[in-house]
Automatic annotation (TrEMBL):
Origin: domain of life: Bacteria
ATP-binding as UniProt keyword: yes
GO molecular function: ABC-type transporter activity; ATP binding; ATP hydrolysis activity
Alphabetical list of PROSITE patterns matching this protein: ABC_TRANSPORTER_2
Family label: Belongs to the ABC transporter superfamily.
Domain spans labelled ABC transporter: 15-252
The protein's name in its UniProt record: ABC transporter ATP-binding protein
One GO CC term on file: membrane
Keywords: ATP-binding, Nucleotide-binding, Transport
Pfam families in alphabetical order: ABC_tran
CDD domains reported for this sequence: ABC_KpsT_Wzt (cd03220)
Length: 274
């Protein structure tokens, strides 16, 4: 819970010239790789994140916005420490907690059992798990389904449970790599209250989305990525507006105009922030 000391303004995350490059292997078909002389696999370098730098202070809610494949999830994984950066460094004042669609919960176990597993994995004692359980179940809002195997859940139900579990340990840095719009309006309200409480405690939240509206509604600040590069970093409303217009122009098929908008946004960001 929040103490008497206000930690807002203190640096929570520093991303310093981070790049992430990996090798992708492709061939004409999976089987062709086992046939001598046929379908030789090609190895290509994928630049997922390109020389990205920024700092985030405690109490900020930062949205990462961009098209599919723009590097949002890759950057979040680097910040979380799940993926080592090829170059550059991430400094964090505490260990980030990453929530993603591939979070390590077990499908054969019930939701209730996964609450135990997830909370223990985050370092809670068995007694702390039991004290946290009612709040986790209430936030997830799964009702009787909490006693069903998780493999029977929809993707939205799984997302709700993962988010609820993550809040049990009150992480200082929370990284969300999936939409929280899954579920009904009641869950949306509960999740927003939980995030507001985290920010009041001078926590830091990152939210990945390709939807400008989601970023605009939830976040105070936004970072726009395109092909692994940081295009714009600023107030969520302004970044969302620029990104929304870029996406609209691109969808209309005017690639030249879209490229101009991209370059203008990047140039304006450099003028403001260097």
């Amino acid at each position: 819970m929040a103490g008497t000391e206000d930690h807002r303004g203190e640096t929570s995350i520093l991303v310093d010239s981070v790049s992430l490059t990996y090798t992708s292997t492709s061939g004409s078909s999976p089987l062709s790789r086992f046939r001598p002389g046929q379908g030789r696999a090609r190895r290509t370098q994928v630049h997922a994140v390109r020389d990205v730098s920024f700092s985030v202070t405690r109490g900020e809610f930062v949205g990462l916005v961009g098209r599919n494949g723009s590097g949002k999830s890759s950057l979040l994984r680097v910040i979380a420490g799940v993926e080592p950066a090829t170059s550059g460094t991430v400094y964090a004042r505490s260990t980030p907690t990453l929530i993603g669609v591939s979070a390590a919960l077990i499908g054969e176990m019930t939701g209730s059992e996964n609450i135990t597993l997830g909370c223990l994995a985050m370092g809670l004692s068995p007694a702390e798990v039991e004290r946290a359980r009612p709040a986790v179940e209430e936030l997830a809002g799964l009702g009787a389904a909490i006693e069903r195997p998780m493999k029977t859940y929809s993707s939205g139900m799984g997302a709700r449970l993962r988010f609820a579990i993550s809040r049990a340990s009150h992480p200082e840095i929370l990284l969300i790599d999936e939409a929280l719009s899954t579920g009904d309006a009641s869950f949306a309200d509960r999740s927003r209250r939980a995030m507001d409480e985290a920010l009041e405690d001078a926590g830091t939240i990152f939210l990945v989305s390709h939807a400008a509206q989601t970023i605009e509604e939830l976040c105070t600040r936004a970072i726009w990525l395109e092909q692994g590069r940081l295009v714009m970093d600023g107030p969520a409303e302004e970044v969302a507006r620029q990104y929304r217009w870029f996406a609209h122009v691109l969808a209309e098929g005017d690639e030249e105009k879209a490229l101009g908008l991209l370059n203008d946004a990047h140039a304006e960001n450099r003028r403001q922030y260097g």
